[in-house]
Amino acid sequence: MGFSPMPDCTVFRRDVANRNPELKTKPDNSLAEFSIEFKATASHDPFGTTPTPSSRTRPSPYPEDVFMSLGTGKASQVLGQMTAYAMLILGTQYRTHTFTVLIVKDIARLIRWDRGGAVVTESFPYNDQPYLLNFLFRYNHADLGKCGHDVTVRDSTDTERQDAQTTVDELKDVKRLVTVSMLQQDYVICAPCP
What is the reported pTM? Predict the structure, then answer.
């Protein structure tokens, strides 16, 4: 990787941070909620959009057909960074989606990532508009499913962990197990990251 796999700011749930005080000095993407990336120069915003007439032969189903002009140089590197950070969270947790907050000088964008791609908001002046504050407030009060956690997967209880490690030899030395609920059955499996 040509960059540090550590975002400028990594957000953790309070209960997770309280159980893992080492997160203050050594962030762990397998426990992260989302990331915030800060850039000082407008040219570092990879999502500059330029309205361009469509070259398609049939009409677009969308009211505005705007091609996203993905930047080159540093903007392209920023996009690569944010993609990598989102994929680290999605790849080390059972998640349906995650978010990134991109702050470039005096504007911000919210990005929702899932395994199919990303949805990016228009830029907005975060000092003048309440969108960023509203997002953070609502995220803080949302249930785990709305925050992107797969609610069919949870950390195994001590009893489930002990039963699984007693029954299945391959799980004896595994530090972190999760329980998956499917079709009214619970299955204890290895977590994607220890």
Answer: 0.80
